[in-house]
Please model this.
Amino acid sequence: MRHQLLKKITLLTGTLALVMGNLIYSVTAQQHHHGHSTPQIDTSDSKTLPPVPTDLPSWMNNKSKNHIYRKRGVYNDAVYNIKPLALDLNAVAVGHAFAYEDLVTGKEKELETKTFDRINWILKNPPRFMPDEANISPTFGRKYGVLEQVFDWAHILHAQTVDVLVSSKMTEAEKEAEIERLYEFYVKNVPYAITGLPMNMGYLDTQPYSKAFRQEYKKVNGLFWGYHWLQGSMYDMLYGKTLEEQKNSYATVGKQYHEIELYRTDRPFMPMFAEVSPRFAQRFPKIANTFDNLHMLHDMVNDILASDWITEQQKEEQIQRAIWLVMAKNHEGMEAGQNSGGEGLHDHRFMAGMPGMGLMPEGIGHQGHDKSETQTNPNINHDGHSMPNMNHDDNSMPNMNHDGHSMPNMNHDGHSTPNMNHDNSRPGMTHPTPQQTQQPSKPARSNQKK
Model:
């Protein structure tokens, strides 16, 4: 009996060996047929990073601190005339710095929890004065020094423009003239000014790493885009208004910012300046474009840092490239409304009738910017005029009328688009023909000093 059992085991082992041998032979033969000695790896999903230009100016490799002081003026720090707004803007600076420092110090896994909670606390308990972001994010500053300087310089333009608008020591005519001078001061004093030309947002938001941050860190990205909503909305809220009107307006705007805009995660794209402050964008399109391009640079940097498939060296290279893409120096001699080629980089056409807004990504519907699917944002009334509130669903917004004049209808494909309705039924927001900049009407001015 033992002999028969051994015989059966021997037979079974032989059969198994024969089967395995045939299987191995089959796999080897198939590999030989394809010219490979190992199984083929599918690389169809691999991403190729764009090359970094080799002729970049030397200042882009600077890692030293280089703080540039703001322009002198009687208006500096006038934003504190509207203290709640000033404090909210102080908190924005802290929030950005917290997130960047954690991203570059290995704490990215805590971004949606501990980092979010820290930022949220600051937003509810803002510092009394504007902080130096370099002191809050020292590692980020050492690693990406030039980037921090680009951010800081644009933030100074932001701050001083708001100071002028809120100043009680200037007439409206003086404010307009000084805002023009501030922009000239911004572009001419240092090499790292961001271009004031409209940029093709579709091109900038279709890099190999694009959308990584908003997909991985929805809550923190919501905070960032909430900041950008505030930083854009405040211009029309302040422009051409008395200080009392400005204060009353921010009581409403600030409430919406804290209760709704900071915590939205349903926006398909960042808020665009000309959508939330169309009057100011019409009057100062270069400033509007500068701030949109600044915010797009923020998004690109966020996406690069959030892409774990990119090495640390590649991240430094791609951030350097991202900076160069939006630098004014990179677009010298070009004009708004023209496509100078360059595979989208030098496409400076703008949305029809809106010289302060570059072309949007294909397929982006605007209603997601303003109106949550779960909550309708209230219209913000500043002084009897409708605030855009970025609500673009059907029949909800009468042509973005802010001062008794109809805004251009954002005609994207040669057809009238009433109420700027860009829901998903419109095919991809097709690019318009190049638009020429027109001088917009200015708000009523007062010759009396406030």
The longest helix spans residues 2-33. Residues 19 and 287 are 74 Å apart (CA to CA). The chain has 16 helices and no strands.
